[in-house]
Design goal:
With about 325 residues, the protein is α+β, with helices and mostly antiparallel strands. The protein folds into three domains: about 1-70, Phosphorylase Kinase, domain 1, CATH 3.30.200.20; about 75-220, Transferase(Phosphotransferase) domain 1 (Transferase(Phosphotransferase), domain 1, Orthogonal Bundle), CATH 1.10.510; about 235-320, no CATH class. The protein contains nine helices and ten strands. It has helices at about 35-45, 85-100, 165-180, 190-200, 210-220, 235-250, 265-280, 285-290, 295-320, and strands at about 1-10, 15-20, 25-30, 55-60, 65-70, 75, 105-110, 115-120, 125, 135. The strands form three sheets. It has a five-stranded antiparallel beta sheet with strand order 1-2-3-5-4, covered by helices on one side. Strands 6-8-9 form a three-stranded antiparallel beta sheet. Strand 4 (about 55-60) and strand 5 form a beta hairpin. Helix 2 (about 85-100) packs antiparallel against helix 3, helix 2 (about 85-100) runs antiparallel to helix 5 and helix 3 packs antiparallel against helix 4 (about 190-200). The relative contact order is 0.07. The mean pLDDT is about 90.
């Protein structure tokens, strides 16, 4: 192999662009001082279109030498993107991480940031597994405090063990950066994506998305919010729960109506009618995206009225069968 360029060199690793002297094929060569050989062997075996292929893994004198596929293109920090491009990038990253998180044990990347992601010809490639690790169910927190400031989740600083939600936190921060060039403020970010970022970057990992698949559905506006089970924030969950409890208190004391004679059916019909108003409120993006030209208050009223008619008709039919 002929060395063409030293890409990065520090006390932990030496990364070079090399070329095969006979075939003139370019590769990335990595010499690692801090590594988990088993992790790289696992990455070598899996088929993931969003990861560079690993051709050689060789251990020598407490060093690990890797020969990886050379991926042409610019990293995310060297480009700017439209909203639709950002959604496409996030979709591909979620698919990439979903396959890693589903391994047994899962692999957590822990260093998702623009400099570690190439986007070329509308295709994402995730790089640098230098601080990636397997999820260890026996440990309560990470042994080493590692991660990039701004993208690293709180648990990477010794509070808990890194887990799939750690990568979700970094994805939320990454999306924020790609949409407006900032890690903190959310100026000019569309409301729907702002809500996704808010949930993905919750300080407590238990309040983030359960999986990158769930986050991807939310980004693509395919995730149905069922209050209070999967609201974006803890606050909205509590508000939804309080509203449901209040509704139940009202419905329980209701008398059978003229339209529906059965008391239980009548109460269930009223509860679903009121609950649907709450459901519709939290699923604005899901409904409004198909009829964006209609003002939301008007569309909300129309859908609510149609559901009322359907609700009454259905439970009258049920009542007639009892």
């Amino acid at each position: 192999m002929k060395t063409l360029q030293i890409i990065k060199q520090d006390q932990d690793k030496n990364i070079s662009l090399v070329e095969h002297e006979t075939t003139h094929t370019k590769y990335i060569q990595k010499e690692l001082n801090y590594y988990d050989k088993t992790l790289y062997q696992t990455l070598q075996k899996i088929k993931n279109p969003y990861l560079p292929k690993i051709f050689v893994i060789q251990e020598n004198d407490n060093h690990l030498i890797l020969i990886e596929e050379y991926i042409e293109g610019k990293t995310l920090d060297q480009q700017s993107f439209s909203k639709e491009q950002v959604k496409d990038i996030m979709h591909q990253l979620c698919e990439c991480l979903d396959s890693l998180h589903k391994l047994n044990p899962p692999i957590i990347h822990r260093d998702i940031k623009p400099e570690n992601i190439i986007y070329h010809d509308s295709k994402v490639t995730l790089l640098d597994f230098g601080i990636a690790r397997f999820l260890d169910s026996k440990k309560s927190k990470d042994t080493l405090i590692l991660g990039s400031v701004g993208y690293a989740a709180p648990e990477q600083f010794g509070f808990q063990q890194s887990n799939p939600q750690t990568d979700i936190y970094a994805l939320g921060k990454l999306m924020n950066y790609l949409l407006n060039g900032s890690l903190e403020h959310q100026n000019n970010i569309p409301f729907d994506l702002k809500q996704v970022i808010l949930k993905a970057t919750q300080l407590d990992y238990k309040n983030r998305y359960n999986s990158v698949k769930e986050m991807d559905l939310a980004i693509q506006q395919k995730l149905v919010v069922i209050p209070p089970l999967n609201n974006d924030t803890f606050k909205s969950k509590m508000i939804s729960l309080a509203w449901i409890v209040f509704t139940l208190m009202i419905v329980v004391d209701m008398e059978p109506g003229e339209t529906i004679n059965n008391s239980f059916i009548n109460k269930l019909s009223c509860f679903l009618f009121i609950y649907f108003g709450l459901f519709l409120y939290y699923n604005k993006n899901l409904f409004h995206k198909h009829m964006s030209k209609v003002p939301w208050p008007i569309l909300y009223s129309i859908i609510f009225f149609l559901f009322l008619c359907l609700d009454v008709w259905f439970f009258m039919w049920i009542d007639s069968l009892i």
